[in-house]
Design brief:
Length: 206
């Protein structure tokens, strides 16, 4: 039997998460997920993001090779108990950034790995402080298209970095996959790192 050229399945279509795994030297194969990401009332931000990461890993396990571990992840932005997902319209994106303007918000980034016999999870919570943003720069930024598909409507590793005054916690978690917590899980499931020799692309993500 031919040997596989990957060691884990990534249950995500996120380009950012794929690039972070490549940065870690992890060989992976992508599997799409169709997990319902609707928020359940009375669910805390922590419980919500952990549930989504877990369900993505479990769904990937159910449709892919059961002998291969599956990684699921999710990231949300939280301000004043309000969860910010991914904006779908220009108005939603500019409004979202207006709410974050001049404020400190929290980014919850959860990762889960599952195989046939076990599932493990980790969570990174980071604090991000935005400077004051006027409407024109919010609109100009949103017109670049970058906010769409990003929790909170910004990409800290991209053009949105201009808005960030301070970060405390996991920078990679704000991007979409907390490296330290992910590595802890990879060790548990004996998934090797430093196998993919591709140069880190994290700084060039968009």
């Amino acid at each position: 039997m031919a040997s596989r050229n990957f060691d884990i399945i990534l249950a995500s279509a996120s380009v950012r998460r794929a690039k972070i795994l490549r940065q870690m030297g992890v060989r992976y194969q992508i599997a799409q997920n169709t997990v319902d990401e609707r928020y359940t009332r009375n669910e805390s931000p922590q419980d919500y993001v952990l549930r989504l990461a877990r369900e993505k890993a479990q769904q990937g396990l159910s449709i892919m090779d059961p002998d291969m571990p599956v990684l699921g992840a999710d990231t949300i932005v939280n301000l004043d108990r309000k969860i910010f997902g991914k904006p779908k319209t220009l108005k939603e994106a500019t409004t979202m950034l207006g709410e974050l303007s001049g404020r400190k918000h929290f980014v919850y980034s959860a990762v889960a790995i599952a195989n046939r016999t076990a599932i493990e999870q980790r969570l990174a919570i980071s604090e991000v402080t935005f400077r004051d943003l006027d409407y024109k720069e919010r609109l100009d930024y949103c017109n670049t298209g970058e906010p769409f598909g990003k929790a909170g409507g910004y990409a800290i590793q991209g053009l949105g970095a201009i808005f960030v005054k301070h970060v405390s916690g996991s920078y990679s978690g704000v991007v979409g996959l907390p490296i330290y917590q992910t590595y802890e899980l990879l060790k548990i499931f004996r998934v090797p790192v430093w196998k993919n020799k591709e140069k880190s692309l994290l700084s060039r993500d968009s």
